[in-house]
Specification:
This protein has three helices and 22 strands. It is an alpha+beta fold. The two termini are 55 Å apart.
């Protein structure tokens, strides 16, 4: 081949050769070059185990203030944010019609009592007439025995006695009926007076008004909300916790609560109640953590994270949580040895705020690694690494 022709061929294929060399160099660097990593030397350290859950601030006792009767709402005397005490008047219904009904009931009772008094007088008179008829009957019987009077007089005396006794029985029945009417009127008056008390709506306990639902002027019915009241004696965060943490939880465990409004402040708390039902989709259950101190501006329903202390170890082999990885459903770490990263299964234990205990799989002094940046693919076992 002539020299000019060779030169032409070289010039033609030279760019492709250079490109191939560059690709080979890049592939070699990607596959065989050491990857910069973050390193952590495993050592015993004191740590506290924590279980985390997310929930909302709730009141243990919450009440909807509603009327017991249907009536027009005349006044609402409190507003949301107001602290109230037990028995305090919160709202008032229009009492005009109920007052008239009480007056009618009082008049009915007075009339019933007057009727009862009158029939008692009638009964007394009937008793006197019956007594007189009995005495007349005995006198005629005695006279008939001595044949001083006739049988006709005896028959008349018997008839007068029977009439007098019948009148007495009727008067007694009328008295009983009148007394029952008095009792009915008294009970009706008590009922109307009690209904009148329903127009004053009072607080059932010391608490805080968190919502006002109605204003004066409209008609309210039983069960409809006028105000929302909570007791501030006990507030807690109802947090959803993964079911895998249930074995380590118990009543009274210490906890810290972090409200999203103050993400850098930890508020003390303790476990007050453990739920007994797991959500079938999320596989979480409710844990109520009593908050022992609240932010200045707290609201019912605000979001918070709870961290429940499940144990402490003074010399646990703990690693940062980012270094514990999961592959094919198994936990493990990448151990740096001889300039390479090798996968090793690890059994986690206590989980803390930043650290997680490794019960098996590591010994003190070993170095574990993760990529120094977020690569498109994770480190592989056997891959070369550059430990700082």
């Amino acid at each position: 081949m002539s020299s000019p022709h060779l030169t032409s061929v070289i010039r033609k294929f030279a760019p492709w050769v250079v490109l191939a060399l560059i690709v080979i160099a890049v592939l070699y660097r990607m596959k065989f070059a050491a990857v910069p990593v973050q390193a952590y030397i495993v050592k015993p350290t004191a740590m506290s185990g924590e279980v985390m859950g997310t929930g909302t601030l709730e009141a243990r006792v919450r009440t909807t203030i509603s009327p017991r009767i249907q009536e027009r709402l005349a006044e609402v005397l409190v507003d949301q944010g107001d602290a109230v005490s037990a028995g305090q008047l919160l709202a008032r219904l229009d009492a005009g019609e109920l007052k008239r009904q009480v007056e009618v009931a009082e008049a009915t009772l007075a009339s019933a009592k007057a009727t009862a008094a009158r029939v008692r007088v009638d009964e007394t008179r009937a008793a006197a007439v019956a007594q007189q008829a009995q005495q007349e009957h005995r006198r005629v019987v005695e006279l008939l025995a001595t044949q001083v009077t006739s049988q006709a007089e005896m028959d008349k005396a018997i008839e007068r006695l029977r009439v007098a006794e019948a009148d007495l029985q009727r008067a007694h029945a009328a008295t009983t009926e009148a007394e029952q009417q008095v009792v009915t009127a008294e009970r009706n008056l008590d009922y109307q007076r009690e209904r009148l008390t329903f127009t004053d709506i009072r607080s059932p306990y010391d608490g805080l008004i968190i919502k006002r639902d109605r204003d004066p002027g409209g008609v309210v019915v039983p069960g409809s909300s006028i105000l929302q009241l909570i007791s501030t004696n006990e507030l807690w965060v109802s947090a959803w916790v993964d079911e895998t943490a249930s074995a380590g939880l118990a009543l009274g465990q210490k906890a810290r609560v972090v409200f999203r409004s103050e993400a850098d402040v930890n508020y003390p708390g303790e476990v007050a109640r453990l739920g007994r039902e797991t959500d079938p989709e999320t596989r979480e259950f409710l844990v109520d953590v009593r908050v022992q101190q609240l932010p200045i501006n707290w609201t019912i329903g605000q979001r918070a994270e709870v961290f429940i202390e499940t144990g402490q170890k003074p010399d646990a082999l703990a690693v940062p949580q980012a270094f514990l990885q999961w592959r094919e459903g198994k936990p493990g770490v990448l151990v740096a040895s001889g300039g390479k990263a090798s996968w090793r299964d690890a059994m986690p234990g206590l989980r803390g705020r930043d650290l997680v205990e490794v019960r098996q799989g590591l010994v003190a002094g070993e170095t574990i690694v993760i990529p120094s940046k977020s690569p498109s693919s994770p480190l592989k076992s056997g891959q070369r690494v550059r430990v700082p």
